[in-house]
Each structure stands twice: as structure tokens, then as C-alpha cells.
Write a structure and sequence with these properties.
Layout: H1 2-26, H2 32-37, H3 44-54, H4 58-71, H5 75-105, H6 110-117, H7 121-153, H8 160-209, H9 212-223, H10 236-252, H11 254-257, H12 266-294, H13 307-315, H14 318-355, H15 362-384, H16 391-414, H17 420-439, E1 446-447, E2 450-451, H18 452-470, H19 479-488
Antiparallel strand pairs: 1-2
Length: 489
Amino acid sequence: MTLTVQLSIIVGYLILALVVGLVAYRLTDRTAEDFYLASRTFGTIVLLFTTFATLLSAFTFFAGPNVAYQEGPEWVLVMGLMDGIIFAILWYVIGYKQWLLGQRHDYVTLCEMLGDRFASRRLRGLVAGISLLWLFPYVMLQQVGAGTALEALTEGAVPYAVGAGLITAFMILYVVVAGMRGIAWTDTLQGAFMLFATWIALLWVLAVVGGPSAATSALEAEAAHHLALGSDFYTVQWMLSTAITIGFGVAMFPQVNQRFFAAGSRTVLKRSFALWPILCVLLFVPSFMLGAWARGLDVTIPEGENVLPVVLAEYTPVWFAALVIAGAMAAMMSSSDSMLLSGSSYFTRDLYRPFVEADLSEHREDYLARVGVVIFATAAFVASLWNPATLFELGDAAFSGFAQLALPVMVALYWRRTTRAGITAGIVLSQAFYLSSLFVAVVPRVYAGWTAGLVGMGLGLVATVGVSLLTSPAPDEQQSLYFDELGAD
């Protein structure tokens, strides 16, 4: 009976999200721009919550509490405060300029904008290829999170592969049907629900164990070092490196970056980034503190399991634990569906159209985009069956990989003198260095406490500026046009 209740709630919640997508499908134009950007019509609430829900992933609900459980609650500072503030600033610094250019030139992707700015099909394809490379492990992260969560919640009755397959099937069906409009609608529903459910879960668990004082005392008795700021894990260099690479990486995530183009007006864009840090704190505090307090509670976390599902199964009723996990799975789906949609747009607009079929029609592009979703999601699912790394390792690699794009892009947006050779050199050098740190044993991952991801960003910045100073702009680059437009606004 317990298993039936759990699965009924989880599947029911996912079906509700699918129904919302079907309603949106009836209002969707059969054009690529509407499929990718909902015809650039988002208001403040929808833009804010669709961006918010897009980032509510397995990294938030499972990897974050796991880190807080193992190392202490300082993870709240890294994600809740530092990245809430860093990304809000980047939303304005990068996002507003992208929005201005998108309004004038109908850009759908960052790659399209850069390719046009530097009159380079190769640069456009390079950025698209790199983005798809780093998007793949982050889609895998959602499938791994779903599989492990269902397996833990049902005590093995639902195997890992079945859970991962369930979330994959739903998100394929949902994205193919709904497009950006449906995704944004359900993101708004899911974001609001997860804020409410996570706080209720925190209050419920605290009520059962005797309140925050009792939970803190139990944590002190079990792991007193968790209550002291700083540790061998939370060094200043590591915290700053992680906060910066995650914040800048988020700004380059295709599913987030594309939302810069989708705002209905500049007022919508500005209101949304102003409210962003508040939403981050409201979500990260309860989920990460549950993970930290769990260390002192009378609950055993099996090796390799996620903390949050085990704690909820122990201290809350079956139906509530299932509801929260259903919401977490829906949040994973809200991340994955946006990733698949954006990844599909990068493939069709920035790889297939420029290099294979230049006269691709709107309707054929719309069709290829939906086929691309199926192929990408299926490939990520097959790869997730090997479960090659922890959720934190998968997420951290993706964030840092995307972060390597951020500074060359910012230089190109703000410095007229940036050349095609300069931005290409910055992107290639930083990516090569960071990939080497992951896969080549002789390349260190840490430099005096600073991570290779942050060091790579610095190398990319130096290369972009240095090579630009040593080279001249190509005659067909759009430097004067773009900067005159931005300056005149």
C-alpha cells in the first residue's frame, strides 16, 4: 500500500505538469521562435519563476543537502547568498545587453549573437559545441538524481534505472509537446510549489525532533566542527572559487541564458533580477539546513544515498515525503526540459542550419528541434545508467565548464576592440585548460587553494584581451553597429 501511495503521488504530479503543457501546446504557434522563446512575451512572475525553476535541479535538492550533511551548513553561503547575488548582477551585466540586441536582431541563442557580432560561422559553432558538451552531464545529473531518489524513497522497490527512465520519458514527452510556453507555465507552478513544500518539510522535521535548538544541539554533539565557520573543506579560496564559477556558469547555461532574450520588456528583466537573490535564500536555506541538521539526527544515511529522501521518509508521513520527492522530480524535469529545449535550439540553429542546411524553413526547424530533444535525452539516459560520478561532481564540472565562456562573452559585450581572434583564443584556451584539469593527471585541479575552474576563467580573460590587442578586427565584424546601438539605448 505504501509503495502504491508513493508512486501514485509522484506519477500524478508529473501528469499534472504534462496537462499544463498540453494546454500551452494549444496556444503555441508552430514556429521555431515560439517553440524556443514563447515569442518573447514573458512577464515578471513567469520570467522569474521559469528561471528559478530551471535551476531547481538535482544539484539543489540532493547534491546541496548532501554537501551540507557531510561538511556543514556553510554551503548556504556559497549557493544561497554568494550565487544569489553574483548571478543577479550578471543577469543585468550580461542579460540586459543580450536582451537589447535580441530585440533588435531577433536572436534566439547566444551563439547566434556572437556569430553575427564577429561574422563567424566557426565561432558560432564552437560556442554551440562547447555548450552541448557541458549540457550533457547536467542533463545526466537530473536523471541520476531521479533514479536514486525513487530508489531510496521506495527502499529499492523501484530500481535506479526505472526511476531515471521515468523522468526521461516524461520530460521527452513534455518538451516535444509543450515548447517554451508550456515549460514556463509549469515552471511557475513548480517553483511556487517547491518553495512552499520545502519550508513545510523543514518545519515538519523540526517539530518532530523538538525544534531548531534541539536539532542544533544534536548536530553539535555529533559533529561540532559543523557549527564553526570554515573547515578543511570550506576554505576561503574554495568557497570563493565555487561561488564565482557557479554564478558565472549559470549565466552561460543555455537554458538560463536564452531566457535573457525572452523577457517582454526591460522593466520585466530588471524586476526579475532584483527579486532573484530573495528567491535563492528562500529555497536554499531550508533544503541545505535540513541536510546539515540531518547529521545529528537519529537517522542512518546509507552509503551513496541522498540525504533528503531518507530524512523525509523517517520524519514525515509517507504521502508528504512522496509529495516533496514528486516536487523535486518535477523540479528536475523543469531543469531538464529547459536544457533539452535550449540544447535543441543550439543544435538546429547554430550547428545544423549554418553547416548543413542554410535555407532551413521555420516548420522544418521546429520539427528537427523536437527530434533533437528525443535523441539528446535518450543518449543522456543511457549514459546515466553507468552513474559515473556523484551528483556534486557532475554539477560542479558543468558549472565550471560553462563559466569558461563568461568572461570572453562579457569582454565582447563591453569592449569595442574585441576581435574574432581574441574571443576565439580566450574560449579555446580556457576550455582546453579546464578539460585538461579533469582528464589529464599532470594538470592540477587546485592552485594554492583556488580551483582550476577559476584559474581557467582568468586565462580566458587574459587571452581574449591580449590577442585582441595584437590583432585587428576583420572587415565584416559588426563592432561599430553593435556598440552604436547599445550606446544609443
